[in-house]
Amino acid sequence: MTTVESADVLVTPEEVARRIVLPEGHRDDAGLFEAYRWLRQNNPLAKISVDGYDPIWLVSKHADIMEIERQPHVFTSGGADRPGSHNPILQNQAGDAFTQQLTGGSLRILDTLTYLGPPEHTAMKDIAADWFRPANLKSGRTRSGRSPATRSASTSGRA
């Protein structure tokens, strides 16, 4: 494998990285959207480090996101051959350490799509895929044939 290093690596300003990663950065929509705008325009595929968090990649362009999604064996959220080895949910290092204490070392706390990699992710996704097809979403119908609002009203005794 050939490795190429570039001298043109752009560093994302700490203010932009912190605004996107830290919870308090999400309190101000205008500032958050400006940070995302900066990222898309200047460093759309950025590896950043924020104190207290593992380094992460921020991918801000749709085409790049779609390319990553087409390669689940390369870009796995489930830890590939080591399930639970990393957390696909942005969590600080202290939170990850606490989770690992509770689970005996794993960061996988739920068997949901977010934590699963192939082939588990594919099998789970296939179960629900039809529900999210445009025609089904447009009709607002579930497998029961009722809309969620009707179903909710009937279970609460209001229908």
Automatic annotation (TrEMBL):
Residues 145-159 have a biased composition (Polar residues). InterPro entries: Cyt_P450_sf. GO terms for molecular function: heme binding; iron ion binding; monooxygenase activity; oxidoreductase activity, acting on paired donors, with incorporation or reduction of molecular oxygen. Residues 137-159 are annotated as: Disordered. It comes from the Bacteria. This is Cytochrome P450.
